[in-house]
Amino acid sequence: MTKTEIYEALTVIFRDLFMDDDIILKSDMSADDVDGWDSGANLNIIAAVEQRFQIKVRTMEIAQLMNVGDIAKMVESKL
């Protein structure tokens, strides 16, 4: 799976979770940039990422995910 395909899948996840079809993901986008992206939403993002990409994210990895780029890199490393 290419980086572009990962970002496309992540975009679908974010748009679905935040009910906002206008979200355009950028690698440096973080919780500060998305309305409603709090700790609860973060867990929902991780669960959706695990399901979509059929991967497992360890608890200690979650703490290292500071932005969308970090999530994409983590997904890429697990595929």
How would you describe this protein?
The termini are close together. Helix content is 57%, strand content 0%. The chain is an all-alpha fold and 79 residues long. The longest helix is centred in the N-terminal third of the chain and has 15 residues, at 3-17. It has a single domain, classed as Orthogonal Bundle (Non-ribosomal Peptide Synthetase Peptidyl Carrier Protein, Chain A), CATH 1.10.1200.10.
Give a quick set of tags describing it.
single chain, 79 residues, mainly alpha, 4 helices, 0% strand
Q: Roughly what is the average pLDDT, rounded to an integer? A: 96
CATH homology-level superfamily: ACP-like
Question: What is the highest CATH level, the class?
Answer: Mainly Alpha
Strand % is under 5%
**How big is the Rg?**
11 Å
Number of separate strands: 0
Order of helices and strands: HHHH
Structural class: mainly alpha
Q: Which fold name fills CATH's third level, the topology?
A: Non-ribosomal Peptide Synthetase Peptidyl Carrier Protein, Chain A
Strand count, sense and barrel status of the largest sheet are: none
Q: Count of helices? A: 4
Count of all domains? 1
CATH architectural category = Orthogonal Bundle
Separation, N- and C-terminal Cα atoms: 8 Å
Poorly predicted runs are none
The shape, in one word, is globular
| Fraction of helical residues | 55-70%
Task: Please specify the SSE layout and strand pairing.
Layout: H1 3-17, H2 39-53, H3 59-62, H4 68-78
Helix pairs in contact: 1-2, 1-4
